[in-house]
Specification:
Putative two-component system response regulator; about 400 residues; 2 domains; single chain; 21 helices; HD/PDEase_dom; Hypothetical protein af1432
């Protein structure tokens, strides 16, 4: 692994981790919409309902922030679950399974995944048990007093948002009908305490809830050491890479090689870390592209290719949600731009593309060509560099970077 050859980073990077989780929740919503027709901004609505309910218990400070993080990322393992299960059973009906059974597997995967996220308080078993029923009939047969409070809150908030298209009276009746069954009485009381009438609940459909969410949960940047920064990057890269079996380690590969290359040519430790983050996140926009396009074995139609090209634009939009992330966003999102202005999605020209953006474009190509995929064997370093040199001659990529890539990865 190239990461193993990166010299330890001593400088610490400052990141809007809550904003990044919120951005990722949008990407996860795209997956849920593709599978079970979940509404847009599901993760953020679950987070908002959860933190409103939390006031009932006077939860505040670090605990409230961690509750919001868990709610935003409660379904972080959906793509992983689908990928793993399809490997075992190619005829599995994912839509039916996710909407009816709420299997415990994505809870198990999700619980393991969030150990990479730097929470400030103990959130053990929150993701693991977020589909448990108060009466013990859930996936793990845990009763309400065996389930962490945050898991109970998120379970109710998640369910309410899924049925939220119904009338306020229906929601109230549903909660009362399922009190001490699906939900414990304390959580039902907390919800009815937070939302006392239909008007207070309307902000979830008119969009104003998002502003209120970030007012309650301040978007303060946190300082992370290199190991934590890498863990955060890997968490998001893994979610992206599980979207398609065709690119099972692509984002991680780009992140490792981009950081290694940046260090090789003399970047300081902060910029090496930024390159790792940008590489890990460069394809997050693919979460908004259907797998029928991502994994189509035949040549894409013009319309399909247009949709595929949108993924870089989605990366730009998703990462624009993160405070003070413009530099990393651009390094990530411009990886399909070309020096001759014929790249996508923005048609940037050479004068508009800085060195890190040019590096990311070359590293993305290098990684894609050298990695094994289900339909092809990865090319050799030499063959890949020949192709990069050819692209440089055609005005697609930077020739100096292409030459340095040959040197950097040639002896490894």
């Amino acid at each position: 692994m190239y990461y193993d050859r990166i010299i330890t980073m001593k400088e610490e990077l400052s990141i809007d981790i809550i904003g990044l989780a919120g951005a990722c929740s949008y990407a996860l919503d795209c997956i849920e919409a593709e599978l079970v027709n979940i509404k847009n901004k599901h993760g953020k609505r679950v987070a908002y309902i959860s933190i409103c309910m939390a006031e009932y218990w006077k939860i505040e400070g670090d605990e409230l922030q961690d509750l919001a993080m868990c709610a935003l990322l409660h379904d972080n393992a959906l793509t992983q679950y689908i990928s793993e299960e399809l490997k075992k059973d190619s005829v599995i009906n994912c839509k039916k399974d996710l909407s009816e059974k709420k299997t415990n597997l994505h809870c198990i995967y999700g619980e393991k995944n969030i150990t990479k996220i730097p929470f400030k308080t103990d959130v053990s078993n929150v993701i693991l048990y977020h589909h448990e029923h108060a009466d013990g009939t859930g996936p793990f047969q845990k009763k309400w007093n065996e389930i962490p409070l945050f898991a109970r809150i998120i379970h109710l908030a998640d369910t309410i948002d899924i049925i939220g298209n119904n009338s306020w009276n229906f929601i109230c009746q549903y909660l009362l009908k399922n009190r001490d069954g699906l939900f414990d009485s304390e959580c039902v009381n907390a919800f009815l305490h937070a939302f006392t009438h239909s008007e207070s609940f309307m902000c979830l459909s008119d969009g104003s809830f998002e502003t209120k969410l970030w007012e309650i949960i301040p978007r303060q940047k946190q300082v992370f050491d290199w190991k934590t920064c890498k863990n955060v990057a890997d968490f998001f890269a893994m979610i992206v890479d599980y979207k398609s079996s065709f690119t099972s380690r692509h984002s991680i590969g780009v992140a490792e090689k981009a950081a290694f290359f940046a260090q090789y040519i003399g970047y300081d430790s902060i910029n090496v870390q930024k390159m790792y983050l940008a590489g890990a996140l460069h394809d997050i926009g693919k979460m908004a592209v259907g797998n029928e396009i991502l994994e189509k074995p035949d040549k894409l139609t013009d319309d399909e290719f247009s949709k595929m090209k949108n993924h870089a634009g989605y990366t730009y939009l998703i990462l624009s949600e993160v405070n003070d992330f413009e530099e990393i966003r651009d390094w990530a999102a411009f990886h399909h731009e070309k020096l001759n202005g014929k790249g996508y999605p923005f048609g940037k020209t050479a004068d508009e593309l800085n060195e890190p953006e040019r590096i990311m474009a070359c590293i993305d190509i290098y990684q894609a060509l050298t990695e094994d995929r289900p339909y092809k064997k990865g090319l050799s370093h030499e063959k890949t560099c020949e192709m990069l040199d050819d692209m440089a001659q055609k005005g697609f990529v930077d020739s100096d970077i292409s030459k340095k890539i040959r040197e950097c990865f040639g002896g490894i």
